[in-house]
Structure formats: C-alpha cells, structure tokens
Design a protein that fits this description.
Distance between the termini: 94 Å
InterPro entries: LytR/CpsA/Psr_CW_biosynth (IPR050922), LytR_CpsA_psr (IPR004474)
Organism: Enterocloster hominis
Strand content: 15-25%
Mean pLDDT: 84
Family: Belongs to the LytR/CpsA/Psr (LCP) family.
Number of strands: 15
Largest sheet: 6 strands, mixed
CATH superfamily of the largest domain: LCP protein
Protein name: LCP family protein
Low-confidence stretches: 1-59
Number of domains: 2
Helix content: 25-40%
Shape: globular
Pfam family, one: LytR_cpsA_psr
Structural class: alpha+beta
Length: 350
C-alpha cells in the first residue's frame, strides 16, 4: 500500500503546485498592471509633457457647472440633452459576476451619446481608447491608490468588471471633458456583437481596411459584405497592431458599423415591433447599466424612430497621437474640444 500513499502524496503535491502557480499568475497580472503604469509614467515624465503642450489635463473644470462663459459668451447646460457613456468591453462572456481589479477587461470602444429628449435624436462623441487622462488606480483588493495619467481604456480594468468599472470610466471621461456631468452608462461585452448582428439579419458594410481578409477571406478591401456571425465582431475589432495608432483608425470601422446596424434595426422594426426589446433581452447578461430597463428601451425606441444616423451625427475628440517605444498615446486638444462639448450639451444664452 506504500505505492498508494506515495501516489496520493504526489497528487497532493501537484495540486498544491498548481494552486501556487495559479496564485502567482494572479498576483503577477496585478504586478504587470502596476509596472505598466510606472513605465508609462516614467516615459511621460521623460518627454516633459506640460499643460501648454496638451500632455496634462486642465486643473479647472470648465463644464462642472450649469453656466459656462467662453469667448465672451454665456452658455447653459441643456437639461433636455442627456449624456450616456457607452462602452464596448473586451471581456469574453457574460458580465453577471464581479471580478478582481485588473481582470474585468478594458474598454475598447468608448462613445458618449448626447440624447436630445425633446427632439428624440442622438449624436455620438467617439473617444479614442488610448486617450491619456487621469484615471483611478487600485490595488488587487480594489483599494484606491489615487489617480494617475494613463490610457483611458485602463480605467475599466481597475474596477470590478461591473458597476465600479463603469463608475471609474464615467469619472475619467467626465474629467477629460472638463467635468461634464454624465448621467447614465451602459457597458457591453463585445463578444455579444455577433448575436445582435444576426438578430437584425446581418449588417451590410464596405471593407475599407487592408489586411482584414487575413482574419476572414470574405473581408477583402473594396468589397461590400453583409456581415454574419463572428464576421461582425472581426469587422468592429480588427486592427493591425504593427501600425501606429491602429486603434484610432479603427474608429472609422466602428462608426460605419454603428450607422449600418442602426439602419438595420430601423428597417427590421418597421415590420417587427418587438425587435428592439428582443435585442436587449438577448444582451441582458452581457451588459451593465445604471438605467432601468424601461428607460434604455425608451431611448432606443426614440432613436430608432428619429431617422437615419448620418456622418454629421458623429464627432471625435480632437487631439494628437503620439507613438512611444511601448504604446500608442492620444492627447486631447482641450481648446478644440470645448466648442464640441458646447454644441452637444449646452445652449447659448441670449
């Protein structure tokens, strides 16, 4: 029976070993996140970015109040226009469970919707994921360590993968936009895209990016394709990481897909009144929001009934991209951004 005892001891030691390896991997991921933060911090300090050069966020929050004075004119926050932060998260699977800090995924797609509740229209401000701005940092236990200038996409990762992650993103985006109040948020895992895409019968786009055929032979530049299944996720997420600022260029694909998907929903809703409700039911386990169901359904219904989304309904945070030895970075031009925020969320006082 000694061989049996030895076998049990071996299995026990292997089990302990695997547990130890798992623990080390868990800790190392957090350490890697911390080291990434320090490396970026050092690079920024070495380059000597200043507020004048656009490398630091403004200390004063121009849009923290209802009244704004700009270029000799006064503006008031339009109470009928709501700010809704929408995030596409690169976290595979359902989002029903909270995660440890560092494991909740990053926010790959960041869009601030300006919903006009009177005209029932929407406009979309697209925010580059690599925008450098102040975000909340935490340790592996979720304890807040403070704030540091980092890639905006990481703000989601430092949370719990659910509400806390969304709150950190809202805080970071609000700070980036001069303290603008953001009323609502909605985050969804990007792996749900194929499911939503097929529910509307597919989405038709024109391939404008080189190299996408390497992921799917049908996605050849210049071809018009009705995306099915995983093709939709490939189209929305594809970028050539060997090219600087590929995430920035990818926003054109995302804008094209949003417009085409919106159009497909409108066409489908014309003969299927339950389509919008069914879409949200399907994605329920893949999203996190602070809105009640009837609230986000009404927003969606109003948007679908408002007419076609055009290029004029999309805005992009203005700024400059910088390629570093480690990462791509994007620095918002606060001076050029101010008129955009005023146009979307404020009205001039006569």
């Amino acid at each position: 029976m000694s061989w049996l005892r030895n076998h049990k001891n071996t299995v026990y030691r292997v089990g302990i070993g695997l547990a130890a390896v798992s623990l080390v991997g868990f800790i190392w991921t957090g350490v890697g996140l911390y080291r990434q933060r320090k490396a970026i911090e050092a690079e920024i300090a070495a380059r000597g970015h200043t507020a004048e050069s656009g490398g630091q966020q403004n200390d004063t929050y121009l849009f923290s109040g209802d009244i704004v004075e700009y270029n000799g004119k006064k503006y008031r926050r339009n109470s009928y226009v709501k700010a809704i932060l929408c995030m596409g998260v690169d976290r595979a699977g359902e989002m029903t469970e909270k995660t440890t800090s560092g494991f909740g995924g990053q926010s790959d797609g960041i869009f601030l919707i300006a919903q006009d509740t009177v005209r029932n229209t929407i406009k979309i401000l697209m925010i580059p994921r690599d925008t450098m701005t102040d975000i909340t940092l935490t340790d592996l236990s979720g304890n807040i360590l403070g704030k540091d200038m980092q890639h905006l996409t990481l703000a989601y990762a430092y949370g719990d993968g659910r509400e806390k992650s969304c709150e950190y993103m809202v805080d970071a985006v609000s700070g980036l936009l001069g303290g603008l109040k953001i009323e609502w948020y909605l985050a969804a895992d990007m792996s749900a895209i194929p499911m939503l895409n097929d529910e509307v019968g597919g989405v038709t786009v024109t391939i404008e990016t080189e190299g996408m055929e390497q992921r799917d032979p049908a996605l050849v530049k210049g071809e018009t394709v009705t995306l099915k299944g995983k093709q939709a996720e490939t189209f929305v997420r594809f970028r050539d990481i060997k090219i600087g600022h590929s995430a920035l260029f990818r926003m054109d694909q995302q804008q094209q897909y949003i417009k085409a998907f919106f159009e497909a929903v409108q066409k489908g809703s014309a003969h299927d009144s339950g389509l919008v409700v069914r879409l949200f039911d399907k994605v329920q386990e893949y999203m996190v929001t602070n809105m009640a169901k009837d609230q986000y359904l009404k927003i969606a219904m109003d948007a679908v009934g408002s007419g076609k989304l055009s290029d004029e309904d999309f805005y992009t945070v203005p700024g400059e991209g910088v390629v570093t030895p480690r990462y791509d970075e994007f620095y918002a031009d606060q001076e050029a951004l101010t008129p955009v925020i005023l146009e979307l969320f404020y009205r001039e006082l006569q």
